[in-house]
């Protein structure tokens, strides 16, 4: 009998079917990621979880975390610079490699190599002994990676049961991937998804983005400026809006003219002031 089938029959706590039902109901809702992690936890006894959105040649975007310790390392170090040396990130930048499946960090590091600075300056500080990752292709050049962390100094090493955990996750991978595609399939990875307690902040930022420059910009210019403010360069904007890169550059010139700014830093400063003073 498979592990999943056994989990379906649990009588203590939530069963697999109950957790799956909750995750399905949470698709496109703020509690989806937490429901998904709860579902996975019925299969694998991990200590920490981080979910990130990846796009080709772009920095990862925060989607969710359950980090009981050292949470600041994710935001202050990993998302600012350390991600460049992460074997999961590096794998996704290599067109020759498999872009989807269940992987463990130790095997990826052995295959791709591991920067000693990443190991010594960042990874050891997290306290993670091992890491399993579900790499899910949402669409071409866009992935969700669910990282499951195991804290060091436990009595039984993770390696003792890693093969079984990889098999369990592989068994349900397509189901988890389908749920992720339903939830994140139409959402570009541009703004971090806030914790449940910060939903009002996200709503305020989105409303301010929608209002910024609306009185003087055309609909297309407004689409372009939203993407500029979220870190897209001209090439990425052209791909996102399915227009020519030269057209994007023309829009940028007119946006700067209409908003009376001369540089990207001035544009960001103008938006920051708008964000702080915006009231719907």
From TrEMBL:
Gene3D superfamilies: Winged helix-like DNA-binding domain superfamily/Winged helix DNA-binding domain. SUPFAM superfamilies: C-terminal effector domain of the bipartite response regulators. One of its GO terms (biological process) is regulation of DNA-templated transcription. This is HTH luxR-type domain-containing protein. Keywords: DNA-binding, Transcription, Transcription regulation. InterPro entries: Sig_transdc_resp-reg_C-effctor, Tscrpt_reg_LuxR_C, WH-like_DNA-bd_sf. Residues 210-275 form the HTH luxR-type domain. It comes from Photobacterium jeanii. One of its GO terms (molecular function) is DNA binding.
């Amino acid at each position: 009998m498979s592990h999943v089938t056994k989990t379906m029959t649990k009588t203590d706590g939530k069963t697999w079917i109950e957790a799956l039902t909750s995750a399905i109901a949470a698709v496109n809702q703020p509690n989806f990621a937490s429901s998904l992690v709860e579902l996975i936890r019925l299969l694998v006894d991990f200590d920490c979880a981080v979910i990130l959105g990846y796009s080709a040649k772009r920095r990862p975007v925060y989607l969710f975390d359950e980090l009981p310790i050292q949470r600041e390392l994710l935001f202050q170090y990993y998302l600012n610079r350390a991600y460049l040396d992460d074997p999961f990130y590096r794998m996704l930048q290599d067109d020759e490699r498999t872009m989807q499946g269940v992987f463990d960090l130790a095997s990826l590091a052995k295959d791709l190599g591991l920067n000693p600075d990443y190991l010594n300056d960042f990874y050891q500080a997290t306290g993670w002994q091992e890491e399993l990752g579900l790499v899910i292709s949402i669409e071409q050049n866009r992935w969700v990676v669910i990282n499951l962390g195991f804290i060091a100094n436990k009595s039984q090493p993770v390696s003792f049961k890693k093969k079984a955990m990889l098999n369990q996750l592989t068994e349900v991978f397509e189901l988890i991937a389908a749920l992720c595609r339903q939830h994140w399939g139409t959402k570009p990875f541009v703004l971090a998804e806030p914790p449940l307690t910060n939903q009002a902040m996200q709503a305020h930022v989105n409303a301010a983005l929608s209002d910024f420059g609306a009185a003087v910009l055309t609909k297309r210019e407004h689409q372009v400026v939203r993407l500029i403010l979220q870190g897209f360069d001209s090439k990425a904007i052209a791909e996102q809006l399915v227009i020519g890169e030269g057209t994007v550059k023309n829009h940028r010139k007119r946006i700067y003219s209409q908003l009376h700014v001369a540089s990207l830093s001035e544009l960001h400063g103008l938006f920051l002031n708008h964000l702080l003073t915006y009231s719907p």
